[in-house]
Amino acid sequence: MQFHIKDEALADEGLKQIEWADWQMPVLRQIRERFEREKPLQGIRIGACLHVTKETANLMRTLIAGGAQVALCASNPLSTQDEVAAALVKHFGVPVFAIRGEDTETYYKHIHAVLDIQPDITMDDGADLVSTLHKERRDQLAKVRGGTEETTTGVIRLRSMAREGVLAYPIIAVNDAYTKFLFDNRYGTGQSAIDGILRATNFLLAGSTIVVAGYGWCGRGIAMRARGMGARVIVTEVNPLRALEAVMDGFEVMPMAEAAEKGDVFVTATGDVRVITVEHMLKMKDGAIVCNAGHFDVEVDVKGLRQVATKVRRIRPSVDEFTLPNGKRIFLLAEGRLVNLAAAEGHPAAVMDMSFANQALSVAYLAQHAHELAKDVYPVPRELDEEVARLKLESMGIKIDTLTPEQQRYLSSWEEGTE
Ligand code: NAI
Does residue 91 have a pLDDT over 90? Predict the structure, then answer.
């Protein structure tokens, strides 16, 4: 078996981490037990490009239980947990190609290594695997039955491929399941981005001003949790509806050019490019902390910052100090990459439980139905989404009411009105 990881000797440590995550992933575990009995993925090859974390390891175990052959590479050069990569290779026989801190060339070499297994189904987080396949390995496209996509930015890229008529097979947008974005993007990113900032800096949030760029699902979560820690929160937006929502949720809203002078900590979560520019950073207070929770490392102009800086040094793990020509310092976390994965452990397992339950069920759905689908981006079927919510509630010991026959009739009729 081929693989490329940091150190096989880390495998036993990784196994403990995977088991630790597993007990907080009851929905995925239940699906794994069902897959073991029913083998819905028998004979299917899955090429996966995901953050190589302990939660992802449990997804890989689930796919294997279903009968699939899998290969895994990282969807971000800084998010790999090397001990988990080792455990996947040694204890679960998964070919993993991922080393934390790999350079861009190695990152793409690893994507190619996964494509070498000639996948029937692709599983992507950010669409780098799918776009490499479409740009550089077109000869393999005919073999691929379908794919899944984990995150907002990937779904946006894939929709644009479908619009231009270049997408060669159907994709299920796992991100757009309610049991994904309402929980993973909001509560997952909300908690883990704050966790990343705190682990990197140990900064006191109480009484500080934190600027959150983007009031989407991730931004809402970060703003909500930062307020909970006692920070004053400023939101920046480009969408008037989202900006209005932020105002009514009680946050200050203003353009980044104004917020730049006020913030102590800046977090971007927009999926957009150059949201924090060099001009913004030149206006910031001495010692401002800048980081990103969006998918790609383009939200903060890191290249521009490197160009203007008169001095750069790593002051502690995950924190680079940039001295600007005006003498002020900027502390950039995790090189501007996903702060929650690069400076902490990513989302808590209990939230990834739902995201990856959607992944597992979507792959099983594709195995059965891909031939009925067009070359387009599809939502997770509603019944799978509701199944995940039902299983999660059950695992939490929470019961809910069910509609009576009278209520079902009432809710589907138009005749009854004012009595
Ligand atoms: P979303 O589409 O719900 O929200 C993005 C928001 O940013 C929108 O309201 C948009 O109007 C706003 N925006 C766009 N350009 C802006 C600008 N220049 N200034 C201010 N606001 C701007 O997207 P979601 O789900 O919140 O995802 C955001 C990013 O986070 C994506 O790249 C996504 O892939 C990534 N993501 C990261 C996770 C993590 O673990 N850190 C988890 C889930 C998603």
Answer: yes
**Strand pairing category for 329-333 and 319-323:** antiparallel
**What is the number of the ligand 1 atom nearest to the C-alpha of 51?**
40
| SS3 category, 148 | strand
Judged on CB neighbours under 10 Å (0-12, 13-18, 19+), 217 is: buried
Question: What is the H or E stretch that residue 266 is in?
Answer: strand 265-268
Pocket of ligand 1, beta carbon within 6 A:
151-153, 181, 185, 189, 213-219, 236-239, 242, 269-272, 275, 293-295, 338, 340
| Atom number in ligand 1 closest to CA 181 | 25
Domain positions in the chain are 8-180+347-395, 187-342
Q: DSSP label at 138?
A: G
Question: How many CB atoms neighbour CB 108 within 10 A?
Answer: 15
The ligand 1 atom at the shortest distance from the C-alpha of residue 272 is 15
Ligand 1 pocket test, pick from 224, 270, 292 with the greatest ligand atom count within 8 Å of Cβ, gives 270
Burial of 381 from C-beta contacts in 10 A (0-12 / 13-18 / 19+):
middle
Q: What is the CATH number of domain 8-180+347-395?
A: 3.40.50.1480
Ligand 1: nearest atom to the Cα of 185: 43
Cα distance between residue 61 and residue 63, in whole Å = 6
**pLDDT tens-digit series, residues 292-317:** 999 999 999 999 999 999 999 999 99
Q: Judge whether residue 415 has pLDDT over 90.
A: no
Angle at alpha carbon of residue 267, lines to 357 and 248, rounded to 5°: 85
Burial class (CB in 10 A: 0-12, 13-18, 19+), 419: exposed
Mean pLDDT of 286-291: 98
Q: Kindly report the pTM of this predicted structure.
A: 0.95
Pocket test for ligand 1, best of 76, 150, 151 (most atoms within 8 A of CB): 151
CA of 412 to the centre of ligand 1 (A): 36
Ligand 1 centroid distance, CA of 155 (Å): 12
Bridge-based pairing state of the strands 209-213 and 329-333:
unpaired
CATH class of 187-342: alpha beta
Ligand 1 atom showing the smallest separation from residue 154 Cα: 34
